[in-house]
Write a structure and sequence with these properties.
Structural class of chain B: alpha+beta
CATH superfamily of chain B: GHMP Kinase, N-terminal domain
GO biological process, one term (chain A): U5 snRNA 3'-end processing
Radius of gyration of chain A: 21 Å
Family (chain A): Belongs to the RNase PH family.
Largest interface: A-B, 34 and 31 residues
Distance between the termini of chain B: 38 Å
CATH topology of chain B: Ribosomal Protein S5, domain 2
Strand content of chain B: 25-35%
Number of helices of chain B: 6
Shape of chain A: elongated
Number of strands of chain A: 14
Pfam families (chain A): RNase_PH, RNase_PH_C
Helix content of chain B: 25-40%
CATH architecture of chain B: 2-Layer Sandwich
Number of domains of chain A: 1
Organism (chain A): Trichoderma asperellum (strain ATCC 204424 / CBS 433.97 / NBRC 101777)
CATH superfamily of chain A: GHMP Kinase, N-terminal domain
Number of strands of chain B: 9
CATH topology of chain A: Ribosomal Protein S5, domain 2
Distance between the termini of chain A: 52 Å
Oligomer: heterodimer
Order of helices and strands of chain B: EEEEHEHEEHEEHHH
GO molecular function (chain A): mRNA 3'-UTR AU-rich region binding
Chain lengths: 293, 247
């Protein structure tokens, strides 16, 4: 497959010169995100995130399986992402690129290992039956800042998802279909969000957020913060690049916290809108068999 | 059933892309091509049509490979492959949504043939190819039909997943704009006579628009199903008009 074209010398000089003067090609401020759109599908657990030309769709599905023998009390939770020729012809099917592996690992650290989803609540019968929750991340188009948009899509989809209701009487497990009982939400503990900062300039002193693909190719370094609205940091990753001043990192962390609160508000607002849309005739409260946490 | 909807060229980095939704199925197609083929799959005489179906949930398995094997020859017949030696035309079909059945809990891994999705996949692929400006000999449309009762007298067009589950046999037939049979896949038990009825019905459903006043003679079946070829023509006309707006 053809290789992706690198930015030309004139493109590179022009963009870097503009950034050093505090200007961006799409006339945004240095610390400004592109317009972010989040929408949910007709099914439960489908979230579509559009960030400029970047578009990511996350779909959650659940089924009952046997838990891992070394963790009999835990359910299974996995996130998979795949970049294919839909993103650009240079991505091949079944041959993961570095971007893809880094994305998968970052999402794993942010969402799975930070304990955002209570996996113990997915256990049905210890050692025998548990829910296996799986998030499929479909990247439809990538124009920079894939990490932030993917993380937002996954968190939003998981919070939107409803799994079939179950009941256990003695040894028999009953799984109810959507027609029998209203599906129940997952036990969600906190919502971490990623914010990526990209460094430009000689010593990496210029900080940009939400870079486009062109800017991403020209950066000298980047750092990704994952934290929830309470300021609890899940992970910070700075993979190579130029070394950056410690004070700058602390400033970035402050900005990441503000951004995380913004994302939380956005997801909450969209979820409330969607719940209203689904709640035709106000019967949802009666249909639900779930207890308050 | 709701009428089909489509969105064209909505992905910025691919040569052509389309989003097609009908009957609960939503498919996004991305087409790249003709691009240079890799050494291992280059053919010195014709272009390779590479179809890649991705499921909405889970990784693609044998079911998806079979769908690819059905769609690939159909698309190969539509594209003049001999005009593009040593090239590859990449068609990626991403399943976004499938119709839900409230009475059955969904299973992620289902290694079985899902015939109901083939029309949507084919229509999305054709819209994608058209927006990518890949030359084509003709366009095509397909339809899914089921025989429900024992005597084979009633044929239902565009069945729901529940109807497919209960049907005696399921058929998918595709026709080109020139009324030639492009693809025919069947599952279940049926007689040759029943298949002939299915063929006739499918031809009427797919090629309805070409005969003037065809709707009047249609009678029962097909009246509820949209004519997809006409729909594709109208969305592309709208897109072309929008593109030439500056004139």
């Amino acid at each position: 497959m053809p290789r992706e074209a690198e930015p030309s010398l004139s493109e590179r000089t022009f963009t870097l010169q503009a950034i050093s003067e505090g200007l961006r090609l799409d006339s945004r401020k240095l610390d400004q995100f592109r317009p972010l759109e989040l929408s949910f599908g007709d099914e439960y657990g489908v979230a579509d995130v559009k960030l400029g030309k970047t578009r990511v769709l996350a779909k959650v599905s659940a089924e009952v399986t046997v838990p891992f023998s070394d963790r009999p009390f835990d359910g299974i939770f996995q996130i998979t992402s795949e970049l294919g020729p839909m993103v650009a012809p240079s991505f091949e099917v079944n041959r993961p690129t570095e971007t893809e592996i880094l994305l998968a690992r970052l999402l794993e650290k942010t969402i799975r290992r930070s304990g955002a989803l209570d996996t113990e609540s997915l256990c049905l019968i210890a050692g025998q039956k548990c829910w296996s929750v799986r998030v499929d991340l479909h990247i439809l188009s990538a124009d920079g800042n894939l990490i932030d948009s993917s993380c937002l899509a996954v968190v939003a989809a998981l919070r939107h998802f409803r799994r079939p209701d179950t009941s256990i009487e003695g040894e028999t497990l009953t799984i109810y279909t959507a027609a029998e009982r209203e599906p129940v939400p997952l036990s969600w503990l906190h919502s971490p969000f990623c914010t990526t900062f990209d460094f430009f300039g000689e010593d990496g002193e210029i900080v940009l957020v939400d870079t486009t693909w062109l800017e991403e190719q020209l950066r000298v370094g980047s750092v990704t913060f994952s934290l929830n609205k309470h300021g609890e940091i899940c992970q910070i990753s700075k993979l190579g690049g130029k070394p950056v001043e410690a004070t700058l990192i602390i400033q970035c962390a402050q900005m990441a916290l503000a951004k995380s609160k913004e994302f939380t508000d956005l997801v909450d607002a969209r979820l409330a809108e969607d719940a209203k849309r689904r709640d035709k005739g106000g019967l949802m409260a009666e249909l639900s068999a779930e207890n308050e946490r | 059933m709701a009428s089909p909807t489509a969105e064209l060229s909505h992905l910025p980095k691919t040569d052509g892309s389309a989003n097609f939704a009908y009957g609960g199925y939503t498919i996004t197609a991305a087409v790249n091509g003709p691009v240079e083929a890799q050494r291992r799959d280059e053919n010195p005489f014709e272009a390779l049509v590479d179809v890649n179906v991705r499921p909405a949930a889970g990784v693609g398995g044998t079911g998806e490979r079979q769908l690819e094997a059905i769609l690939q020859p159909a698309l190969r017949h539509l594209i003049p492959v001999r005009n593009f030696p040593r090239c590859v035309i990449q068609v990626t079909l991403q399943v976004m949504e499938t119709p839900e059945n409230a009475y059955v809990n969904p299973k992620v891994m289902q290694p079985r043939l899902n015939l109901g999705i083939i029309p949507a996949l084919l229509h999305a692929a054709i819209l994608g190819l058209l927006t990518a400006a890949v030359p084509m000999k003709t366009v095509a449309s397909a339809t899914c039909l089921v025989i429900t009762d024992a005597d084979g007298s009633s044929v239902k067009v565009d069945p729901t997943p529940a109807e497919i589950d209960q049907a005696r046999s399921v058929h998918v037939l595709g026709f080109t704009a020139g009324r030639d049979l492009l693809l025919a896949e069947s599952e279940g038990s049926f007689s040759a006579d029943e298949w002939a009825t299915v063929l006739q019905t499918a031809e009427k459903v797919c090629c309805r628009s070409q005969e003037a006043g065809g709707d009047a003679e249609m009678g029962g079946y097909g009246a509820e199903s949209e004519n997809v070829q006409q729909f594709m023509r109208s969305v592309l006309e709208a897109k072309a008009a929008e593109g030439l707006h500056w004139r």
